[in-house]
UniProtKB/TrEMBL annotation, chain A:
Keywords: Coiled coil, Mitochondrion, Ribonucleoprotein, Ribosomal protein, Transit peptide. It comes from the Eukaryota. PANTHER family: 39S RIBOSOMAL PROTEIN L40, MITOCHONDRIAL, LARGE RIBOSOMAL SUBUNIT PROTEIN ML40. Its main location: mitochondrion. This is Large ribosomal subunit protein mL40. It is found in: Mitochondrion. It comes from Opisthocomus hoazin. Gene3D superfamilies: 6.10.250.3440. Residues 26-50 are annotated as: Disordered. GO terms for cellular component: mitochondrial large ribosomal subunit. Residues 115-142 form a coiled coil. Pfam families: MRP-L28.
Length: 183, 212
């Protein structure tokens, strides 16, 4: 009687019908076999679903972010905001017209001077290149090539006043509150 | 009799040209039925096509041709950078400033200048506006006080086919007329520049990250 396994005395579960087949008596067929068959299938199905979703999202064309500058705020389209200007005197209108003419003339001279400057620059450059060609063909070819160092070019605009010496700015910070658009 | 004749001709699957069929439309019904036999395989039983009233009610061919609806552009052009003349590819001239009118007028000026100097302008667009809140620390106290809300505006003029000898001249001219407070930046056009104009798609990116 000592040879008999312990399961004779305590039946672990009602599944343990036979004494010798100890481990096989448990419902082995159900849980672990499911993991072998359905898991890769389930993963595959999941991947397919994700691919479908990605395809659907990619089908929609990407949209441009709307530019807030080109959208006038609604408060400015209120009809109450109309100014009533007083009528101008004759001298005032004359003064304005003459000022406009002077400004036009000034801008015309400025524009002509700019065009002339560009033309002289281009002519001087062409002459220099011609002379260089006569001097040496190699240097001319190297000069014609594009300049790689030219392109990432940054320049700040000129300032009205130079920086104040010894200026102590207050401490602070800049917070970016741009509206983020998502599709 | 003509109907029987038409049927006989239909049964013979002759290889008459379709041009005969087209010409037959203007002719009288009897003649056109004979000609209609050219399209023997398709429609020998549809007599109405041979009638003079065929095509009545057609009007779309009279309307002016509409251009096909454009889809949102996804592809961007990239020129060959090294050529015999040594030209630059797509170049972006970016102007940034806090003052919108100034930057717009400067962009218009640059565009007109490029037109005048026969430099090809691909596009002239605006980048999205950035808003910044400037806070400063009060002299006596630890609270941050709102100083101003600044908006940064950026305009881009995209040119291409700039020759290497003319590029420094153009840059010189633009620099000389640069207004105060406008930051000028000239650089090559990249895909990242194009992508920064588009809306972000967090869901798509999440799914793509999960895939990989």
């Amino acid at each position: 009687s000592s040879r008999l396994p312990q399961t004779v005395l305590f039946r672990g579960s009602h599944w343990q019908t036979s004494l010798l087949a100890f481990r096989a008596s448990l419902p082995v067929r159900a849980q672990p076999k499911k993991k072998k068959k359905v898991d890769p299938r389930r993963e595959q199905a999941q991947k397919d679903r994700m691919k479908k979703k990605i395809k659907k999202l990619e089908k929609a064309a990407p949209e441009m972010i709307p530019i807030e500058d080109f959208v006038a705020p609604l408060k400015y389209s209120d009809s109450n905001r109309v100014r009533s200007l007083p009528p101008l005197s004759f001298e005032e209108t004359e003064r304005r017209v003459l000022l406009m003419k002077k400004w036009c003339l000034f801008k015309q001279k400025q524009d002509k001077a700019e065009k002339k400057a560009i033309q002289t620059l281009v002519e001087a450059q062409q002459e220099a290149l011609k002379e260089l060609r006569l001097e040496s063909e190699e240097l001319y070819q190297a000069a014609i090539r594009r300049d790689e160092g030219l392109l990432p070019f940054e320049r700040d605009g000129p300032n009205y006043t130079p920086p104040i010496p010894g200026y102590d700015p207050p401490e602070g910070k800049c917070v970016d509150i741009t509206k983020v658009y998502t599709q | 009799m003509s109907a029987a004749l038409a049927k006989v001709l239909c049964l013979q699957k002759g290889a008459l040209l379709k041009q005969v069929f087209v010409l037959g439309r203007a002719a009288t019904p009897r003649e056109s039925r004979l000609c209609a036999a050219g399209d023997a395989l398709v429609s020998c039983h549809r007599h109405y096509k041979s009638r003079p009233t065929h095509g009545i009610g057609r009007f779309k061919y009279l309307l002016p041709k509409e251009p096909p609806k454009k889809r949102k552009e996804k592809v961007q052009m990239k020129e060959i950078n090294v050529g015999t003349e040594y030209e630059y590819g797509d170049v972006n001239i970016q102007m940034t400033s806090y003052d919108m009118c100034l930057v717009e007028h400067f962009a218009q000026y640059v565009h007109k200048l490029c037109n005048r100097l026969a430099v090809k302008v691909n596009e002239s667009y605006a980048m999205p506006t950035k808003t910044n809140e400037v806070l400063f620390l009060e002299e006596r106290g630890s609270k941050m006080q709102l100083d101003a809300v600044l908006t940064t505006h950026q305009r881009v003029v995209q040119i291409s086919g700039l020759s290497s000898t003319f590029a420094p001249i153009l840059l010189e001219v633009i620099q000389s007329s640069q207004p105060e407070g406008v930051h000028l930046s000239v650089r090559e056009h990249t895909e990242a520049d194009f992508k920064s104009r588009l809306k972000s798609r967090p869901e798509l990116e999440e799914l793509l990250a999960q895939m990989n």
